[in-house]
Amino acid sequence: MKTLLIPALLITLTIGVVSPATGAAVNEEDCRSTITTTCTKCHGAVKICNQLKDTGTDAQKWREIITRMGKKANLDQAVQDTAHACLTMSADPRRLVCEK
Hints:
single chain, about 100 residues, 6 helices
């Protein structure tokens, strides 16, 4: 029983740390930088702000949008994942993009 307890505990802790479902805080400066240096290269922040009005923080919709845009911009998966976390896990993603 003890031999199963430690691996189970480690798996549980690992899932808790890396799972987006935990609502872990994102670094707003990193988010602002990522979105500014990637997303706004092709279109202005206004387009992202308007999309945030329509989509909110719907993770699945943002995944579809970011995947599509990421292919066009040749963004690697890590950058796409960061942008996704910023737009879906931030307490107020509009503040990251829409306010100066």
